[in-house]
Protein 1
Amino acid sequence: MNDAGNPAGPGHHVPLSRRHALHLGALLAGTGVLGLGQAHQARAGTSAAGRTAASVAAVTAAGTAPAAADDAADTSDDFARMRAQWRAAFVGSDYDSADPAIAPGLAQLAADTHQWWSTMETGADRAYLWPDARLDVQISFAISISFGRLSRMALGWATPGIDTHGDPKLLADLIAAMDWMVAHYYREDGQIIGNWFEWMISGPQPFNLAAMLVYDHLSADQIGAYTRAVAHYTPEPIATAANRVLTADVVIGRGILAGDAAAVRLGVDGLAPVLAYADAGDGFHRDGSFIQHDYYPYNGSYGVGLVATLPGIFQRVAGTPFAVSDPIVYEWIRDAYDPLIWHGGLMDMASGRVIARHNEQDHNAGHAAVNAALGLWVAAPPATRTWLGPMLKEWILADTQDDPLAGRSVPVLLQARTLLADGSVPRRGPLVTSHVFAAMDRVVHRRTNWAYGISMYSRRIANFESINDENLHGWLTADGATYLCDHQVDHYNDAFWPTVDPYRIPGTTVDVRERAPMEGRGYLNPQDWVGGTTLADRYTAAGMWLHSQGSSLVSRRSWFCFDDEVVALGTGITAHDGRRVETVVENRRLATGSEAVMVNGTTAVPGLGDEATAPAARWVHLAGTGGYVFPAGARAHLKREHRVGRWSDITQHPSWKDDTPLPRDYFTLWLDHGVDPDQAGYSYVLLPTADAETTSRYAERPGTAVVANTSRVQAARALNSGVLGVNVWAPLGAASIVSTRAPACVVVQEGDEEVGFAVSDPTRATAKVWVRVGVAASRVLAADEGVRVIALDPLTVEVTLGGANGTSRGLRAAYRPWSVPDLQQVLAGLDADEVAPSARQALNQALDTLADLAERDRPAHAQLWALRRKIAALRGHAVSPEAAGTLDDGAQRLFARLRP
């Protein structure tokens, strides 16, 4: 596996030795357990025994090891119990096969069993079991595929209610195939060739399952041969995070089959490093991030594989000396998955290279999370069930595209039916939250009918993973890429990634150049300022200082996430490579291809293939998606196009390579900064789900204001909610009522009686951050650890952020809200050279009118807009630009204080 090349300019790539590959083996149908893992391309001929000789030596010729001292009391009853519990998790009991809740799943299992049985080679001279999984050609790939199909057949034989249940010929063919595998390809003296994951995880996991399901029909010699082979390749739990759990699962499984207490104990104890929060690198972090392979966000794929595997392990060993469980897993389900699951789909920005797999799109990952949560709900303590049950109901019922329970095992289906029928468990409703996954440079902002994701990278997180010939066009998927989820719940699930223009990913600012497949993979942004701050789990400011891979392009970009909109700002956009630079506002897959597009009220690009430039766009609207408002106006470029892609365009892995043409229609909206821009910028407001009329009104009277958009500070305010977001790029940056002495990300909300404040250090380089919030506080109501109040008027704090790992800290304080007299006082304090006498008189008259309306509690927003227009008209001649900015900022603060 060769590197794709070094970046041009600062920054570096993840060292190749730290990259790993992954192959997703067969989904163990009915469990939702994904066969995931690092798939380091091992050199042909590398011996598993050579890697872990001591562990292999501990395995005796009989496939067992001496029992550990603390397990000396283990009896055959414990192993019988574990086998029974393992079987029950897949097969279940006491159910009606005609039950509509489970009949479709049983029918699918029967069909799968017949398919694999009828196509399996059974001749004595066979070289493989299935012709599309040639063990004599694609050894490692075929190992996991073959065992996966055998486990499905074993489940078909073991499950009551279908015609293959108990079939003696099926049983004989199945056992003969397993015997053949360990005699010819999965031998106890074999060597790993190719992808180690197939030999150590995605092969032995289903092999263990198949052996367990037919255990009572295996001889001692067969059990010994099977478990010795598994022990040879997976002698102990290895690696980190998901891969450690999966290898532990393999070790526990073969220990249960062999009656090997030491192996079961080894596997259970191997979970210990995983059942804790990671402070860095692989694993779950306290903010809900999940990292695998050191640098890549993987709540989907690897993370789902981990949480889907643990409930099965817990259930399998329950009631024995090996019993293990940990409430931390419930926290992971809540913090790592609830924010990311939208109507059954798990957002692609947390699924790494798996977005390039046609059968593992966002709903597949979301359904696996549902399955994992169901397994945990059954045994959850009462306090946990109070929130887990309602959350699960929401996840299941909100999926209007696919059935999240389709293909699950009978026990899982029965668990789900019990939950859904339980009237004492309410459906929670849509999650409304705003969350920064600081440890993986991701942001999620959710409202009732839409959600917005931001995907970034830094020195800590790499741009994209592309190995095993997967995710070949992942170049820009984290370059400030934005993901809008709404009622079109299949938007990303319906061949988005193979058909979207990979050079125009929404949210990105990029130079226009062709890239080679996998080019730039593993690139680390040399800039540290990447992250965000959340206030009260409702509002977020996020930012990314990016030095783009393979380019001189640098940019500073911010996103301010409010109640009904997201304000996006860009500044300092500079490059000198002789190439054009663009900012992509939107690239939306169209559900019908005919969705209307309007620019400033006029229809635009009505037909497929149409392209247009709007030289003075104030707003653009895409029917069914929402509006885009340009506060300063923009020269906008629009295109409606028909595209045809193939999964093979973005993956060449044999498991997922598919050459089937996929026609899709797209609408693209972008801004052109020209060739070699110097300090270019942009501003736009996204209005998800807004109709054209709402978008037009917003353009006339926006609900937000851009407070600053410079290379030192970017800031925006939501007028009605009184929320201000400020991204300070350089020390002593100041915007509106906020100033700091170091780079920081700040969110402030001025309420009726309280002011809320939160700050983070996205650079993670400052131990303490000094922040002044220009309000007159009277007392502190609540403060996070590490927040020290220096003064109340104006509110000045010192916040210890060392060790916070990019997360937010803040406080709430009682204060005197901003009022019209405060703005009158500001005007009175401005010198004559800042405000001409005639302008002062006009502004005082307007403020007197506002004061009268405020005193009588009358609607005043129309007069506020008139005041802001007056300030803008006077700016630069009767009022200095600096004074006009100060006055306009004061007027903005009044929107949340006065009646609309």
Protein 2
Amino acid sequence: MASSMPPPPTSDPPPPPPLQSGSTSEAFGQFTFTGLPPGLFSAKPTAPQRTSSPATQSTNDAPGPATSPSSYKLSASAYGPQIQLRPPASAPPSQWQPPGPAGFGTMPPLVPPSLGGHVHLQAQSGQRSFEGKLQFQKTPEVKPQPGQPAQAAVVPTGETRLQIALDYGTTYTGVAYLPVSSSKLKQRGLEEFTEDIKVITAWPPKEEQEKVPSQLSYSVTPKGCEQYGYDIDDNSLVLKKTKIQLEAMGSRLDELRTLSELLKELRDLDLSEEEVIENGIPEHLAKEPEEIVKDYLDEIAEKTEKVINSDLGRHVLSNVAIDMVVTHPAIWSDRALNSTYRAVRAAFNHDLFPNLENISFVPEPVACAHFTLREAWKNNRVRFRKNDCFIVVDAGGGTVDLACYKVVDIDYNKKEMKLDQVGNPLGATCGSTCVDDDFEAFAAYQLGEKAWQQLTEGTKHAAGGHTVMSPTLRGIQEKFQVMKHSYEGKESGLTAPIYLPKSFAITEEMKGVSNGALSITPADLKKMFDRSVNKTVYLIQQAVTQIKLGEELPVKTIFLSGGFAQNKYLIQRVKEFCTKQKIALEQGDGWAAVARGAIIKSLGIYTEKPKYVLSSPRHYGIKVRRPFASYENHARSDIDVDPHGIQWATDQIRWFIQKGDAILPNKPTVVKHELHFSMNANDFPITQSQNKRGGRGVPQQPPAVFRDVVFLSSSRDKAPTAMSVVKEESEQMYTLKVNLTDVPQAHIVPVETGNKQQGRQLKFHVVVEIQLLDEVTVSIKSGETTLASKKIDLE
């Protein structure tokens, strides 16, 4: 029975969507889709054939050189279009197998493969039809250089790549993205192409904003909120300023203070059945700042994945290579960069972004500068000339960062401008959150410290080094934000009172409280701003001086950008400074200037592209001994007792560099660890020979006394902590021998044990230094003397 044909459409079919391009790379070449929607087709070579001759085949039966594949597998996408193939003239039509019901078809290898070829394709989907060609082009095989790490950044070679920028800020976070097609790039140019940069603006629950608050809560949510950003339940404990805490923990005193707070909090923690059922257990007490940042970025990554899938299509993230650029404050330690990198890698993981190949870092003021300057250039707000110098101020929530630039070349006809950065970026933790902190200090003083603690009860869960806002403090801060954002710097007039909760008991001792509200005068408000604003103006003065002394040129323009730069009082103070210095002041464009500018920087507009960050392929550390602790499962057989009677667990491992740590471009990762060797003074040959002199009063050369330092690396995801579980297939060991007689006398310290039988001890102080860049270097030093060293390939 013949099938009936579908009736012709009653009206003209709708026009097809804009044709785009895409590509996929294989071992034998590159397939380029021309004039076809991306993701509609894919092509892969089937199992390749290899040739080898008995004369050249090795004894381990290694395969010979690869030849062309036996066929190419064409597959239709999930959209289910019907595919018709027309082979090139170089191949007989009888050799072509069209797609079957499952949507797959094959074609023989192009003849000859080195000349390339193409296949005409037609696709029909409903009333829309697409036509184009599948172009095959031979590409050279890229071999890794000797000693190149397996985790080296992938060099972009595909037709299309996706750029993602993450601006994780102290108070707000922004994400921008841009698909980049090399063919489109040639047609439109890099400058025009950046008009297509998109910023994520849809945040839960229903906020249309270019940024989302950098806030997270682990509290239970009866309302079913997302518990991050704008969508946090009213009665939740909210973590804030976690980004700054990546940098905050520095000294041992800080660590001890945090531990003391945590122990007190655990002691006071209410873990009754009713409390746990009602509010859960505060998870953040057991988390490091890096873990909390990762948990927050998990939410950002999932939202980013959903938006890109919805906007560009679900095929993009699984088929297009991704480059990601992450911004950071101008002053940001290597430790904080590493924690940021690890958190980003964990959140934007392979499950969500399977083709994320490269991550690079860009300072926030540099990213902000590239967008701000581009907008000024495009809109002709500033007439740049060669040797003009200017400063971009990114005034954000947590930090204020500055970058200085000079125009080294400019061509208005070609719309090209080359910039050089002058000096180093400047910055300080003096953003708008400093005003919030000073408001809380003011309120605590007015109400009394004890009353303020009662009012903000719940912030006790800030123990463990974290800053947490209770629901009450959130409400008070939200009221203050309205006042803060509208402040213009006037020292007269009225300000709105901040009403305190009705349940709060007001006493006569409290200052500035009337009718249940905390009164704030304009003079009070100015004091809250002064610390932040004064520091910002001081940083600008530093930047101006840096340009004048370094370049011997005046500053032409200061660009003021960032969320805090919208404050009228800050604008007024910076304007006063610029007027005195005869410098023009320009307002920056856009709340998301940093995210957009990071995309521009990653494309190399006006400047070179940022270099990619690599990942440490292994853990690196040394064998150590630790104070014995039964709860750490130290074996009794590994216990050693020193002359002071302290028990030590021997044969332990301490890892200083973790697998997955960031290897920053052109900057070695350096870790130093102090240790000492002890021995009885009477047994040390230098001591023995002090009174034994050879001929002519020359001291005898003492015999060498060696001690071993065992250096280890591990490829496991979770590295072992004891030598007893080291495995040959995953761990590598290297022994460095240290001659104690080479230790300078200044680094040998006598120690009295108090035990006559054991006598006096000598401590030999040395430093283990591990450097990681293109290779691993471990050195044992004492003062300026290198006692032993070893270089190891980065694998």
Protein 3
Amino acid sequence: MSRIVWIAFLFLGLANLGAKDWKNELSEILEIHCYDCHGDGAKKGGLAMDELSDKLDDPAVFAKWERIYDRALNGEMPPKKIKDRPQADELKQMRLQLEPALVKAHEKSKGTVLRRLNQREYENTMNDLFGTSLELGGMLPEDGRSHEFDNVGDALGVSMQHMQMYLKACDVALEEAIAKTTQVPAPQKRVGRYTDDKKLDRYLGDNRLKLEDGSVVRFSPYGYPTGMIRTANTRGEGFYRIKVRGFAYQSETPITFSVGATTFKQGAEKPIFGYFSFPPGASGKTHVVELTAFIGAGYMIQVEPYGISDSDLGRRRPKKIHAKEYKGPGLAIHSVEIEGPLISEFPSAGHKLLFAGINRVEIPPRNPNDRTKSWYKPKFEIKSSDEKTDVEKALARLAKAAFRRPVNAKEVVPYVKLFEGERAKGEAFEPALRTAATAVLSSPHFLYLREPTGALDDYALASRLSYFLTRTAPDAELLSLARSGNLRANLRDQTERLLEDKRFSRFITDFTEAWLNLRDMDFTIPDRTLYPEYEPYLRFSMPRETEAFLRELIEGNHPVANVVKSDFAMINDRMAEHYGILDVTGSQFRKVNLPADSWRGGFLSQGSVMKVSANGSTTSPVVRGVYVMDRILGITPTPPPPNTPGVEPDIRGATSLRELLEKHRNVSSCASCHNHIDPLGFALESFDVTGMHRDRFRSKNGDKVNAIVRGRKVVYRLGPEVDSSGKFLDGSSYQDFRAYRDYLAQHDDRLARAFADKLLTFATGRELGFSDRTELDRIVVDTAPNKHRVRDLFHHIIQSKIFLNK
């Protein structure tokens, strides 16, 4: 009988079972089948069932009984070597007694957790509220994580440090949002060229060439000077429009280059905004790449070529080749135009929110003639003719927008009184109002998502949907539907609208960072000796491939089996080069069809996933097996027993990790877990720490390699051959990664359930638990006829009881 039918039977026919009796009812079964190892003085693995409490409101006790339930019903315990195993009627009795108690306990606990905005949600909400583009999230303490999700309420505490930083962030946002003038600030436009550098001539002939139209060609990303253009600089923080003019010189194919920013500020971040490609051209026939980027003050644009170099160009050696004689490809840059900071709205949304209808007047200078001076900057102040009315309206507007729901006059009174108290101390109108506004934005009504226990009301539902798909507060259309009580009736249409919204890209980034742990891309850096292929363009492209692939799964409504096996990849020129896929040019990501025997397709063969599931020098089938088990199959591995030594690869290559694991599995306390984990990780040994396919391990000992990477001879050596075969617990075996992914793809019910679980965890801000199993099973059953298509899964989870209730 299926799990769904069983649970329906439980709730219909056994609702009157007393929770206090369940342990007594199970005592005979436990004594017969479990106490030899876990009772009557035996305490294998630290578990004594006869001493275990039945107080399921204790999370630690609940977790142990849930584990007992799952292992018994799945046939994992007692071990199969035990002859006297529970019979079907005994397992049925265990299910009937324990399952309702676990469901009831979990239902009671899951509505008690408050969920605050995490760093990203706070930053998005503040910027969208005030019309700013500030990096506020980094001002706050780091968020806690629960199974790598940083928006789960259980892990999101609040400390005094949080409150101090919220006050500071509010001050920064208000300062940026409030207009300092009555005139629209005009963005400044500057055009920079390499030829602006008076010292350029001393470098011409080595690795640079000046053309007739003033373009300067670089033939290598190495050497001095760099691609920095000093005259294409920023004076203030904000969004800038950047136009790069140039072409691929002496090349029949496009040449890729990066556009970023650099600064002389010590320790400052030097961002790369993107990689682009210029097609072939000639002097006087340039192409233009345009982009918009947020840049801090005091930065200069930097352009660097990728994939072109010559070992002899510009070298101080007899074979030195001067740039004017060089016949190889180069990147010609004519100019870089930078315009900004760009003003999308003036005054800003935040200014209007606070000061709509209130006049801003100039403070007269002491000397009226100062107005005629070029250095003169007028100062302004707010002048209200009816302070009480204006402040009540302003704070009511702000509170309504910040709290994401209607507010009544009584709720606004404390903030008005705070304003009045500041005025009584002698504060001017504007700073007094800013103090009251800061109090609104530091309120739990703003910092926490209001989700009453039980069915969500329309305003809570609007917030949940919006923070799920756009990572910010609900927009006017969602709030309008909530106000009219029609959101539920239009939930599918609103889901479709938000899936197409440009802000959905925030979900793509945030979800992949959490679900697949891409936020830890830089936790380790691959050893340059072993993996010289790893460089900035590859690092830049890796997570973007994964994001592009997830977006394609959603937009194309592909079956969920594509999570592990697809006949296409979403790649650019750099990822294609890394994977050995031919005929892909240009930095843009696009859908590329794969042959049937390709090693690529699905998330598990992607460089980003292989990177975050390895360290900088070695891979581990255990680490990768746990990764697949948890993130792809939705099975939380049991932590190893205390004081269990780990299994580390022999980086000398003398002993294979497979051999070490074989010895490890001979320990009975290790075998039960490693028999599940290891088969899920062995196949991924086909890929190194950067996601390159391999037949042999790289090491610092072994056979020499005659190869050149990025113009330099490699120094790594080849060690033992890779054995990527394995055998699953059900007896199925595979010889390589391709057979492994075929096996996983056949279990699309499991993939769908795991993916739905991860989506719902991200959407609701809580770890799903025992009482959610029935609804998850229903989602899997309902989406099965159409192969669990990914976009359909979004609709099904948003329409589910889990999403619609707390």
Protein 4
Amino acid sequence: MASLLIFVFVNILLAQGEIILTNYSAGLKNSPLFSIVRNSGSKSLYVGGRNVLLQLDSDLNLIASVTKGPKRYAFSCEPESDCPNGSLQPNDIKVLGISERKDKLLACGTANQGLCTLHSFTNISNFVRVGGTKTGYLVGSKESAIMVNSKTSDNGSIDFLYVFHQYDERNHAFSPPAMSLRQLVRDQQSFTMDYVHEVNHISTISALGISDSYFMSFVGYFKHKNYLYIVTNQHMSTKQDTIFRPRIGRICYGPSRDTLFHTYIEIELQCKSEDWLYDKVTTISFDGEKLYIAAVMLQPGTASTANTSRGSALCSAYLTNIDKFFRQAVYACFNQQPDAQLLPWTIRDRKCEKALLDSHGLNWDELCYLRRNDGIQGLKPLPMDLITTIDSQVTVIRANGNNALTVGDEDGYIRKVTEKEYLKFQLSKFPIGPQMEVDEDGNEFILAGDQVFKVPRSCMFYTDCGSCVSSEDPLVCGWCQTTKQCTMETECTNWTRDICQPVIEKVSPEAGPLEGGTTLQIYSKMFAKELPEDDLQIKVGDIQCKLFNQGMFRVTCITPPGKGNQPIKMRMTDSDSYKIRPYKISGETEYHLPFQYKNPQVTKFEPTRGPQAGGTIITIEGKNLDIGSHVKVTAAGIDCELYPRRTTNNITCITKEWDAKLGRKKRVASRARGSGSIEITIDSVVRSSNEKFFFLPDPHVKSISPGRSIVSGGIPITVQGTNLDASVSPLMSATHGNNDLNLTTECVVKPGGEEMVCPSLNVAGKIEVKQYETVHVYFLFDNNKIPADHRKSENSFPFLMELNLKIEQQKPEISPVEVEAKHSH
């Protein structure tokens, strides 16, 4: 109902900033929206979605809505049946048509075998169901379907409709032909739709039928002069059921010219990028001179699964060239040449008949009345011109004239393209819908998920001066210095395309110490060359930030001392323009975030000791530890290598090996090789801890006892040696053969560092133990392995794992293992 439908403004985030677009949301239960048409007289928009039909005004205000589903459905159910044995399925309103003759909207869904309803233009809540006989009133398909209003006839009460319908596995009794001409007739208060041949009692079918096994989907159509063009994806031939090709077909347009599809001709469209053939068309558009298509590459052997790694290709062809290939196909068929044949996919099996036909004097109007060689397929593909490739699957395109295209894709992006892409922004997180409309002012109405967007014909999508004046937009956008917006020249009295004020895009870092000395990096696409000091000045607060490096898109300066939050200001003058920046710079700017002066502090750290070999991970706590451009940490004068991530309260580093030449702090513990405070240097400022860190001699393991354990582990193992307390949390681990068991247990060190106790490892599931199995034990002291090469016999601690739980009864007796381990650092 209308109360559930939401009208909102949506913020669209661009690379340069943010804009606001008018948007209407139908609710996720009605997503996706499939179809949209516009009544140029009333300016109303009609939108078909999942189980809903909407009527909106030109500002996307809701006028009326009609719930169309879900409905019970099965492929075997009669069209007008309630289908009690069917499953509840959505009714997708994919086909909409305008009948100006009847002042009605024709809407066809996927339920009830594709039944249609006729709705009042002024209020779609007033509607009637369209009836008929056999399959002549069924339009919608769960696959693809297209309906085209034909030219008006002399009979003012009849609408002629071309219907293109893809087979969707339904019961044959309810399956219309692939292509047909229908007429919509009003009889008092009811409306009926039937095939033209049935109403006029013509014996020949006014449709082209295809076999169920032949794949044909319908992508889009356009009308030009006296012809109707339809683009399809088909099997390449009736004999090649795993290869598919796009084709364009043409028919003489209008019921007075061809009611029987005699004049239908088709040729293959070939869209290639380098040697890659894009063999499925996803959408088309026509601008009066050129056909534009978007195509994807199919996965081999499939009719619909795209190779996503290749994205989409945009290709074009002049209509004059397309008609030239049609003419060649007709001439080849009438002369029984190999470049043409009669349609192989129709129910009829025929061959081209030879007849006199002058290719140069061929009158296309006369061809519309020929009754020989009807239904021709040209076998010579039409090579199209590649415009560009896009790294996503294109869902909709619209030609805007002057070779400009609006392109929507499955990732929710809208692109503007000429020979190359000149604008891109994400309109929605949902795929862009398969149809769009445009009004007289160039506003585009675009579908995405459950939403309709109104996208104006405007320069507003360029939200800063640089992107505005350097854009290649056909609108010829420039910067309005009065309103500080990107506009067309007619929309502004103080407009320019060759000069901009400077812009700071990014500053790093955003904070530094009170004493200054921070290397401040300022990024802007406006930096194109080194400028003299008079032409480029940067200040933090009111004090100069001393420049020392200028490069492409970035300059660097050293911050002065300061307090609190200070603005970052830049004054710049550059009277030259360049290829990378085709405009001049003059003026001042201020970055949107201030530079923050803060006082870093160290409050504590842990652990307070580690082996002289290094490898101890030290966690330092404090305040404002994430500021500045350059950070260095030392432990007792020895470098401590920083982990990449810093937070405002935490820094982590890992100690390097202690060296007597580097460690100059006074030794304050009897066994310490060296000791001293933790020092953090941020830019030019040093902060120290009150506590000291001690480098202890590397640990030495002499013996372990007992030398055996049960498989499930947990037996206390006594380890003897020296300096075992060099690490706060030593670990025991082991290998079996050449494989590390990747198991550890934490050891507890007794005072003095000469003894520690480690629970034995639980190796259940890691190794198979039948009765006894030997593993080799080693120890980790802050990432230092002791013994370093524990598999060598002279360094080895062999350890026996036993299956029986009562280890005191096991044989043979094993004495404690004593090995003088040779350690390596």
